[in-house]
Amino acid sequence: MYPYKTHRCGANLAASLALLSLAACGPAKQAAPAPAAPQVSVITARRTSVPVSTELPGRTSAYLVAQVRARVDGIVQKRSFQEGADVKANQALYQIDPAPYRAALDSVLAARQKAEANLAAASSQAERYKVLIGGNAVSKQAYDNAVAAQGQAAADVAAARAAVASAGINLGYTSVASPITGRSSVSQVTQGAYVQASAATLLTTVQQIDPIYVDLNQPSIAGLQLRRDVASGQVKLNGAGQAKVTLTLEDGSQYPLAGTLQFNGVTVDPSTGSVTVRAIFPNPKYVLLPGMFVHARIEQGVNNQAFLVPVSGVSHNPQGQATAFVVGPDRKVVQRTLQAQDMAGGSWVVTAGLNEGDKVIVSGGQKVQAGMLVDASEAPNPVQPPPAPVPAPGAPAGPHSPAPAIVASK
Q: What pLDDT is attached to residue 87?
């Protein structure tokens, strides 16, 4: 019985050794192939000239505002205009009862005639005494009195003439005229109302709104940054009359007419840290009304050292900083932190963080990370630089132009 078991165990051992031998003689297992490098599209960063602009909020205000007030006391007899209608300069708006002022004028006219008659009599007497004193027919005292009476009569005539002029002015004030050409507002008084000169009763307001002002608020740091860029030569300012301003209205629509920059404030508001920037716009159709909220875009210079990067090539990290992936000469991806605060022509304007000739990833960046190897190909349609501001006819341009009010930032 024991020899049989030994023979069976030996047979099993031989079979196992045979299988191991066959396995050892088989082909070796091959390693898994390395993954292919991601395909990305890039653009080559090139410095270009980009208009320096800034967007500022603001409100419209009338070009001229005239508060029409009463300058004499009296009852309003008539209103001669339609509320909200356009009025011309010197057009009559109200009529205040002129009767008492016409009577006052007649009274001073009579007083002037009396004074002129007295002057004529005093002058004649002075002339006669002048002849008689030569023959000692009158005393020297009498002659002096006649000359003094003549001077007093002349002064009375001058006072009477001034009173006539004053009475005439007051009579003229009874017809209330518009001091400017513009659009009238609501009338504050009606026929039969009593107005007073001492209280300067407000009758109505006339506003000229063509052209119209737009008052903007600019952070003082923006002007400070632009001054630094100008001093370093990075930004070249346009001429004073070339700063183009465009408006976006409250409903998001674009105002069709461009405006011009008037001035930049010289005092910083301590409560807001901003300065006032004023622009002027033509308003022939009265689309803009005083008090409207608008956004203005001011183009005032050119940055010759900027890069334009498509929106697809720029992202933002959790800290809010703009970043981009750049492909290095060794095909490795490097992440750069950029300074990109403005947009132009649908692309980010990058002022720092890139170098001339950098390969910026604009497509396929979502599947790469810093340090990865990639296969890069040039994007077929690189971004085009936006048009630079066109100098106004006859206005100086270039770095030697007169320095305008500084409002824009990079």
A: 95
